[in-house]
Amino acid sequence: MLKVIFFDFDGVIVESVDIKTHAFAKLFEREGGDFVKRVVDYHLENTGVSRYEKFRYIYQEILNRPLMENEFQILCDKFANLVVENVVKAPYVKGTIEFLENYASKYKCFVVSATPQKEIEEIIQRRNIQRFFKGIYGAPTKKSDAVKNILLSEGIESSKAVYIGDAMSDYTAAKNNNVRFIARINGNEAVFTHVDCLKITDLTNLTDVI
Asked: Which residue, among 79, 78, 56, 51, has the nearest Cα to 68 in the 3D structure?
């Protein structure tokens, strides 16, 4: 019997993936078109990975220059300023809010996100949906670690949980903990081409598949 549902946030609860993509492009526009394309391509190939890891990779592997700690913090602050307001205002993925309103009292629901902890908490609070979730986990906690810790603290077997995500990092977190995975497909088909899992385009029929 299902007891726990893990939700990624961007692209699963709200339609906010494009907001993050535009933010990466904006942050590095001064580097020129070729660099921006490489940055955006890298971001899209690694959705679900924290911006902390992405910034360090971009500087080391794409820009080929050191990232000083003060510049790293400036990037993080600028990124947050670009995205928070828009994510707060972003529409829900179809069927998500209805599911939460009807079933959050039946299942233990958790958000597992790559968004920084304080930021994801602020977004969820400002959207007034914190009541639906027993816990909210953001960066720097790794998604796999969050799932593992939740299952242990709740004393729940992995067979009684399901993870809904839209990125390979979500699938990996589920697989590492032997949790069933459902992929939300929305322009990310290539990511899950060779992944054997249930695939849904939105959450309108989630109750039928969990």
From this structure: 56
Q: Is the pLDDT of residue 117 over 90?
A: yes
Residue 45 confidence (pLDDT)? 87
176, exposed or middle or buried, with CB in 10 Å at 0-12, 13-18, 19+?
middle
pLDDT tens by residue, 65-84: 999 999 999 999 999 999 99
* 200 has a pLDDT exceeding 90: yes
CB contact set of 177 (below 8 Å; sequence gap of 6+):
144, 147, 148, 151, 158, 161
Region 86-105: mean pLDDT is 97
Nearest 5 degrees, angle CA 26-CA 10-CA 209? Answer: 155
Computed from CA positions of residues 36, 40, 46, 50, in that sequence, does the dihedral angle turn out positive or negative?
A: positive
In whole angstroms, give the CA distance from residue 112 to residue 138: 6
Task: Give the residue from 150, 157, 160, 57 showing the smallest Cα distance to 112.
Answer: 150
Question: What CA–CA distance (Å, rounded) separates 108 from 124?
Answer: 17
Q: Which residue has the tokens 């400002």?
A: 126
